[in-house]
Amino acid sequence: WIDSHYYFFHNGGMLPVMLLVLIGAAIGRDPITVWVFRSKPMLVLGRISYLQYLMQHVLQGWIKRTFGWEDNQMAKALFLPALLVFSYCCQRWVEKPYTEYQRWRMEKGVKGCDDRCIDRLESMSSKVSFRSH
């Protein structure tokens, strides 16, 4: 049951509907589309979409090792809600604080370890001559 629905959506079954929604959003004249895309759940899904992409195999691998996957319909059914919660938690408590720290560091001009390493490598490469004699 889940596999047939997965293949339908994965192979473009929702493409006509999504195309109409995107055209309505692009034109900006469809108030329902504008309201839907500016709603809190859609904004949250937009913020965590990249983390969903990054974490889907990590979470699925953990579920496979811990609970099994092939014969476990409950694990398959709970995978998407678990992925949403896991992605939200990673965004809220890892990505967001790190992004705020990087922004603060840039504003204050504080050099981090990466900047210091790059400066060191640049100073070392300027001392080495690559000309052959």
Order of helices and strands: HHHHHH
Global mean pLDDT: 85
Number of helices: 6
Identify low-pLDDT runs.
none
Structure description:
Helix content is 81%, strand content 0%. It has 133 residues and is an all-alpha fold. It is extended, with a radius of gyration of 23 Å. It starts with a helix and ends in a 6-residue tail after the last helix. The mean pLDDT is 85.
Q: What's this, in brief?
A:
The protein is mostly helical and 133 residues long.
How do the strands and helices of this protein lay out in sequence?
Layout: H1 2-10, H2 15-27, H3 31-37, H4 40-67, H5 73-108, H6 113-127
Helix pairs in contact: 4-5
Defining key terms:
0% strand, mainly alpha, 133 residues, 81% helix, 6 helices
